[in-house]
Amino acid sequence: MQFNAKVPDGPIADKWNTHRFNMKLVAPTNKRQFKVIVVGTGLAGASAAATMAEAGYQVTALTYHDSPRRAHSIAAQGGINAAKNYQNDGDSIHRLFYDTVKGGDYRSREANVYRLAEASVEIIDQCVAQGVPFAREYGGLLDNRSFGGVQVARTFYARGQTGQQLLLGAYQSMMRQVGLGTIDLHTQTEVLDVVVVDGRAVGVVARNLISGEVQSFSGHAVVLATGGYSNVFYLSTMAKKSNATAIWRAHKKGAAFANPCFTQIHPTCIPASDEFQSKLTLMSESLRNDGRIWVPKKSGDKRPANEIPEEERDYYLERIYPSFGNLVPRDVASRAAQRMMDQELGVGPLHNGVYLDFRDAIGRLGADTIESRYGNLFEMYERITDENPYQLPMRIYPAPHYTMGGLWVDYNLMTTVPGLYAIGEANFSDHGANRLGASALMQGLADGYFVLPYTIGDYLADYLNTEALATDHPAFADAEAGVAGDVERLLSINGTRSADWFHRELGKIMIEHCGMSRSAEGLEKALSEIPALRAEFESDLRVLGEEDSLNQSLENAGRVADYFELAELMCRDALDREESCGGHFRVEHQTEEGEAVRRDAEFAFVSAWEYGEEPTRHAEPLSFENVKLAQRSYK
Amino acid sequence: MRISLRVWRQKGPSSPGALAVYDVPDISPDMSFLEMLDIVNERLATDGEEPIAFDHDCREGICGSCGLMINGQAHGPQQGTATCQLHMRKFNDGDTIVVEPWRATAFPVIKDLVVDRSAFDAIVSAGGFISIATGSAPEANLIPVPYPAAESAMDAAACIGCGACVAACPNSAAQLFTSAKIAHLNLLPQGQPERWTRVETMVDTMEEFFGSCTNHGECEAACPKKISIDFIALMNRDYMLAKFKNRSLMGQR
Asked: Which of A213, A289, B49, B179 is most buried, with most CB under 10 Å away?
């Protein structure tokens, strides 16, 4: 398998511009010849579908939701980064680039990240023009706040609902094109296979979730914008339906999977309260602007938080990392919380949390100001925990959140299968081993609005005046039969346990051995437990209901089946990467204070896995010409 | 806790439905309502009965997927709360809880508690956008938006499109949903060029699917995002003004 990242030559600041000039174009009048299939309608998918349709391509958009607006991008709270330097605090494209590479612990591709930082500026312009109601100053101009891992305020936000507002902006642009007939939208349609003919992606096979009908869609190119795979852990901040099926099936059809072990544990989630918990709820990182994180100094301190005097509190992030304090990057904050837990300093009924305290901020700014900044988050916290965070500190705990890994893509966002693209969280490209806060929205929209719509033309131009393959081609029939066969198989196992039960068990293995800290021993254990559980799944699964009507248990079972395979690959990758970096922490590689130790000489590469009975790990070497490799320090 | 559930079961869009009764022991007050339904489904599956179909996804109150009529109230008894954020502590041990899908002609039942809300997408598609092709936007701070206008637009834009307003309305009207989108865009300077066409096309499309508003105000009470019915007044005002506006003079202040 060849890994040519196709990064253009030249100084980093000129690469994208030069590349845009060098790429082939499709003339405006020829764009309508081309059919592009976009799978997923989150920030990346909706923005790509809208932009390509505006340009003139015929777009087919597929989503398993009942409306494109339900995609999980909608739940992003805190904000979106952009190098506007409106706060006059020394920000620049280069600084955003630098912060992102450093925040990713030097495991991302420099050229992609630079382009992302460049696009960030245009994204804000685009979204404001669409009517995204960003927070504003009294003079009517845009407001900013600060996020973890940086020392400037470059985050644009719409209360605690930034993802919602950005997604609605992209969704509205998309629905405009649906109304104009340039996007053919299929909701309640779940993609279950990618069709590859002569080494090129030519379409997808999907199941209509209402009728159960298996349908083929053909196009000149296929774009996967299907998000991340944190639900492999069962309990995560993801939506219940978020899944890895589309990217996993693409992987099986030849798309390499990059850095599967790079997953992010978000430090500020509401701790689980009991075993029935179905998901974990995130509390935006923006809360760390004003909230202070602490634990009691004394283990087993049973007093209510308010009765613990100042000198008996350990504001451990401020103590260990004085220059970044509570705003250290997520991986650092999560591990620090874990260390407190290991020392049995956890708070709350299950001792599974640390305090995030707004007492001082309320004293300094008043409850009204805090309410205007975080009111909806405070309300959400109270609804879930029945505790009032204006009076008692919040209890928070790290939870699986974002997946930096994903399908391997080159500079053009094309996977190793020609004609198959991956954008947004579904690809691996920009965040290295750890994503900084407010950068996911930026990347999804950069890919969808400003990168893919250009780079896809370079591929399509070669297929001018060729028809998209007809869906009666045998390759489609084969794929349809495969999908129907899978459905049949799941329904006929007729065992005793639900897919959800297996998912929960798999999640326990993954969080224990492939979660916040990983060891060779634990990973090997996971690699023996997962296949055993999977064998049980294959023989003891029970899916009720029929295939030809809405059947949520069946949908779920198919997704869980794919998680088993992906989970194994994640563990293999984590075992293979004998270093600690970003969200990947191997206990064998740490400093005396418990900080991550990277091994650049051996591991400054992207792991790209090729599917097979025994997966093959390839490596795309990473070179750093514009950022000096250094031990990350937030002290 | 032990509760008695009466849940609407309906096999398909054209099948008849009925309320099924389930005895549900061993429920924790800290469970969310949907987690309680998860448990019921797990138990049903163990007994070989098909689980109850219900819509849900983010379980954080923002995606708008979930929506259940609980004891005749859209999203249940807690104000300003979507079903997924409602917790069992709001009920009492021994309660009987009736769970039904949204009831509205424009939202046909697909199965059990799942309804088809695609009429909302049709309304947005008719004009719920600002026509701005990617790449053509001016520098963001060239368009100052007065603070109160931005706040008010955000209040309206907070709508999650769940459909509770329609379900709560005795007329199955979608005025609150439609007006929230119109207000979000019409209150902003960026929305002015299409202000009058937007209100006309969106209202006209809404009326193809939904009933008429007779100012009951049930929608506001049911809304999990507390969207104000003031926006309906704003929509009606703009709709009427649109009928008189000479569009060729719109460039003038």
From this structure: B179
